[in-house]
Amino acid sequence: MTYLSANSLRGTYTGTLRRNAPSIPVTTWECPFSVPLAGAGDLSRMWQHSLMPATTRLISVNDVERLAGLQLSSRLFLAPWDPIRADPYFTVAGQQAEVENALARHGRGEAVPHVILDEDSQVVGRITFSGITYGAFQSCNMGYWVAQESNGRGYATNAVRAMTALAFKELSLHRIQAETLIPNARSQRVLERVGFVRYGTAPKYLKIAGRWQDHLMYQLLTDSH
Ligand SMILES: CC(C)(COP(=O)(O)OP(=O)(O)OC[C@H]1O[C@@H](n2cnc3c(N)ncnc32)[C@H](O)[C@@H]1OP(=O)(O)O)[C@@H](O)C(=O)NCCC(=O)NCCS
Prior knowledge:
The protein has one domain: Aminopeptidase (3-Layer(aba) Sandwich). Strand 9 and strand 10 form a beta hairpin. Strands 3, 4, 5, 6, 7, 8, 9 and 10 form an eight-stranded mixed beta sheet that branches. It has a two-stranded antiparallel ribbon with strand order 1-2. By secondary structure, the chain is an alpha+beta fold. Helix 2 crosses helix 4 and helix 5 crosses helix 6. The protein binds coenzyme A.
C-alpha cells in the first residue's frame, strides 16, 4: 500500500519509509497546507509560509563525506549539546557507520533520518525522528543539529516545520517530543517558534557532554489522529 499526500505529489521521492508493514515514499516537499494542531494555541499563522522550500530529505550514503566534514568543522560547537563522541565518529568511516545504522533503523520503521538542506540543496545538518511508536502512544522523538557556519539562517526552524508536517500528515503520529538542555536557548527558540509547548523538566534525562543533565521537555500535538 502506498501513501501519497498533496505535499508529496509536489516533491521528489528520495527514499522509502516503513510505517508498520507498508512502505511509504518519503519526499522533499513544499508545504502548502494547514495542519490542525492542538495544545499550542493558534498555530495557523505558523503555517502561512504557503510555499515553504524543500528543507529536508532522507539521508543517503552519498552524504557521508559531507557529514564527516561538517561534524569535524563543527566538533567544538556541537560538543556541549552532544554525547561524547570518540575520534572515529568524525571520520568518513565513522559517518558511514552512522548513516548505515540510521538507514537500517529507518528500514525497520523505527526512525526517519533526514538531512537538512540549504537553498542550494547542500547538506548543512541533520534532523531525525527516533523511537517511533504507534498503538496508544503514536509519538516520536526529534533531534537535530545545524553546522556552525550555517547557524542563524532559519535552517533548523524550516526543517522542524517540514518534519512536523511529515509526522502528522504522512506518519499519522499524534505527538512529537523534543528536549533541550536548559542553557540551549537557540534550540528552545526553534521549537517555540514552530509551536512546541514546554511541559516540564526531566532531571538527569540524557548523558550529554559526559554528564547526566536536566532537560526541558517539549511536545507538539495534533488533533487529527
Ligand atoms: C539549535 C540549532 C539547531 C539552531 O539552528 P539554526 O539553523 O541556527 O536555527 P534557526 O536559524 O532556525 O533559529 C535560531 C533561533 O535562535 C535564536 N538565537 C540564536 N542564538 C541565540 C542565543 N544565544 N540565545 C537565544 N536565541 C538565540 C536566533 O535568533 C533564531 O531565532 P529568531 O529567528 O527568532 O531570531 C543549532 O544552533 C545547533 O545545531 N546547535 C547545536 C546542536 C543542538 O543544540 N541541537 C539541538 C539539541 S536540543
